[in-house]
Amino acid sequence: MTDIEKLINGTQAEQLAVIESMTRDRLTILLGGLTIPEELEYIVTEVSVKRFNRIGSEGAQHHNVEGEVFMWSDTDDFAGYMDEINKYLEDQEGSTKGRVRFL
Known about the structure:
- This protein is 52% helix and 8% strand.
- It has helices at 3-9, 12-30, 41-53, 82-96, and strands at 62-65, 68-71.
- Strands 1-2 form a two-stranded antiparallel sheet.
- A hairpin with a 2-residue loop joins strand 1 and strand 2 (68-71).
- Helix 1 crosses helix 2 (12-30) and helix 2 crosses helix 3.
């Protein structure tokens, strides 16, 4: 079963596993290929929950069911975390300045 099939027809556990994997991949890209540090793991959890809760409503900015309304303000799930991501990247850059690294 492909990831797309799991997202559409899979169990909740399969859906969550695919969403978490995709979230980790995207955060890794935002970190410039760095391994996700423990202090940013909460971003994986929070973005994964947001994405899971929107299954079936992808691309929508709001969802209304029997008077209950859900609204999503960001089209980018990581937008609310970019300050933390950028701070982490700045800290990493600052910690490697003036060092010589032998590979």
